[in-house]
Amino acid sequence: MTTNGIISMICILGFYGGSLAGVVYKILHSKGM
Amino acid sequence: MGEQAEVKRGFASRWGLIATLIGLAVGTGNIWRFPREAAKNGGGAFIVAWTVMLLIAAIPLAIAEMGIGRSARRACPGAFKDILGKKYTWMGVFMTITVVCIAAYYTVTMSWVLRYLWMSITGAFIGVEDKMALFDSVSNGDPVQIVFFVISLLITWFITSGGIQNSIEKFMKVCIPFLFVLLVGVVIRALTLGDTGIEGAAGSAAGMEFLYHIDPQYLLNGKTWISALIQILWSVGVGWGLVICYGAFTQAKSDVALNGFIQGFGNNIASLLAGTAVIPTLFAFNSQEMSLAICQSGANGLTFGAMCQIFESMTGGRIVAVLFFLALVLAALSSNLGHFLVGSLPLQDMGWSKKKANLAMMVICFIWGLPSAWTIKFHGNQDFVSGFALVIGILFTCFLIRKVGADRFRKNFINIPENDLHAGKWWNVAVKYLAPGVSIILIIWCLAPFGWGYIGAADMWDFFAQESFATLVGQLLIYLTVAIILAGVVNRSNQKVYYNGSTFPEIPEEYE
Fold first, then answer.
1. Which of B48, B253, B261 sits opposite A33 (nearest CB)?
2. Looking at chain A from residue 1 to 20, which residues have their Cβ under 8 Å from any Cβ of chain B?
3. Cβ separation of A33 and B214 shorter than 8 Å?
């Protein structure tokens, strides 16, 4: 894979992975439903 | 006591609600349409545009629909009637008619993947020279396919008949994690294919490169953005009234904004998994040019043609085919449950029993789905018309929010103190300007000669053409006429009103 491809993949998957982690964190510290 | 009574109705748990919302969003479009659209429109650049559209249109609309359902405690017709007044009931009915028509032909889509799951298990497509000819025979005039259509209808009816808490929620809590496990399994196989030994094949690493590489040129191309918008609106399932109906069953303390984000991101993560499974697999067995040509050939060519051919050539391909088609069946079923609910809930609102309403929905879907099960041209025609009707549904949702007042709606029906995530003023901007704005651009683009070219085409005035201006406008006018007639019926019915304009009513007793 090219450098552009690797960086793009890390950015996209990082964004979605980070969002998923954020959601899980919010749910674990949740007050409601 | 009050707390206990509350849990007896509607969604019993947050996880059940989240699984159901992800289930309604994740459909066959995530698995067979997203990879194709991403490959055709610049891979990484398409993913960037698709993510932007998720944030500015799909998630705000999902939040809006959830707020509408929870504040009205009614299906689409009743929600529009109670919130805006009787002269707007037809808007909710129009959305319902659209989804009933979708449910009819989508059950046929489900029946195709169910048939291919069966063929994967029995190995029926192994050794068949022309895979597309096989699909053509399955999707055109095949009595066996009618049997699979009826089975698909019965499965959907059986699960929806059990209601939200006792059936749909329980099913989704098992189905959705399993669906993600299946997708991860197929991704792992795709990424471990290595050298397939096929001369000229680009390789799975090249497929990954193609899928994620961001080419800025594509970001400057309007078609990339329009394709991303179409994909996200269809995929997340906004403008259908699905979330309005599920929203009617959510507990008063449920977190509308956070659940909207979970639905949107869950949908996109499923799509990315599917893309990471399909595109590298395609590239591992074909040259880059051939892979792109397959993507251009449409969803059916990719799924029932190219992928079946690949499963035949791949080590362990039979098992991967079973996993792949099982994922497609579960994705189709989890979305179709919502379609059935959108059709049956308005009848329940008018006093029909759950059993009778679901039976009526099944009969309507059987009658209207039969032509699609018999010929793929009718299926394509319905897909084409309903795609436009859904964008109109989005405009109706945005109209409702504007009429109530976006700020008032947000403060009264989205943000409550118990919430973990509050929708800020960005949400007002999104539902008042961005979502309707991009929807109008989408309609203009698709109708304009520089878009798909329906205007000015030779069959422009042919009502019976699969895709023409006449069939589009003609059928939308039929939807509208039927919506106005049925709105009168809804307005004359004695359905209870729960909307009070300021707080969330309890989940109605009849929704047990």
1. B253
2. 1-2, 4-5, 8-9, 11-13, 15-16, 19-20
3. no
Q: Which residue of A9, A27, A30 is in closest CB contact with B212? A: A9
| pLDDT recorded at residue B3 | 45
Domains and CATH numbers, chain B: 11-443 (1.20.1740.10)
Give contacts of B269 with chain A, Cβ < 8 Å.
Answer: 16, 20
Instruction: Please report the number of interchain residue pairs, chain A to chain B, with beta-carbon separation below 8 angstroms.
Output: 70
Contact of A27 with chain B, judged by CB distance below 8 Å, is answered with: yes
Report the C-alpha gap between B218 and B216 in whole angstroms. 5
Count of CB atoms within 10 A of residue B287's CB? 16
Pull the structure tokens for residue B106: 């989508």
Secondary structure of B72-119 in HEC code, one letter for each residue: HCCCHHHHHHHHHCHHHHHHHHHHHHHHHHHHHHHHHHHHHHHHHHHH
Q: Do B262 and A23 touch (CB under 8 A)?
A: yes
Which residues in chain B have Cβ-Cβ distances shorter than 8 Å to A3? none
Residues of B in contact with A4 (CB under 8 A): 213-214
Whether the per-residue pLDDT at B6 is higher than 80: the answer is: no
What secondary structure does DSSP assign to B147-213, as a single string? Answer: HHHHHHHHHHHHHHHT-IIIIIHHHHHHHHHHHHHHHHHHHHHHHT------TT---HHHHHHHHH-
C-alpha to C-alpha distances, B367 to B99, B340, B359, B361, nearest whole angstrom: 15, 14, 12, 10
* Torsion sign over Cα B143, B149, B150, B152: positive
Provide the whole-model pTM.
0.93
CB of B341 closer than 8 Å to CB of B171: no
What's the rounded mean pLDDT across residues B401-425?
92
In Å, how far is B254's CA from the nearest CA of chain A? Answer: 4
CA dihedral in degrees (B348, B354, B357, B358; nearest 10)?
A: 140
Chain centroid to CA B467: how far?
Answer: 21
Q: Residue A1 is part of which domain span?
A: 1-33
**And the tokens for B165?**
């808490």
Tell me the pLDDT tens digit for each residue of B64-95.
Answer: 999 999 999 999 999 999 999 999 999 999 99
Separation CA B433–CA B398 (nearest Å)? 9
Q: List, for residues B204-231, the tens digit of each pLDDT value.
A: 999 999 999 999 999 999 889 999 999 9
User: Mean pLDDT over residues A1-19, rounded?
Assistant: 92
Taking alpha carbons only, the member of B231, B236, B227, B230 closest to residue B261 is B236
> At CA A33, angle to CA A32 and CA B3, rounded to 5?
80
- Best of B258, B271, B415, B418 to substitute, by most chain A Cβ atoms within 10 angstroms, is B258
CB atoms within 10 A of CB B2: 6
Q: Which distant-in-sequence residues (6+ apart) come within 8 Å of B77 by Cβ?
A: B89, B92, B93, B96, B346, B349, B486, B487, B490
> What's the total number of domains in chain A?
1
Which residue in the block uniquely carries the two structure tokens 């007002």? Answer: B428
Q: Is the pLDDT of residue B2 over 50?
A: no
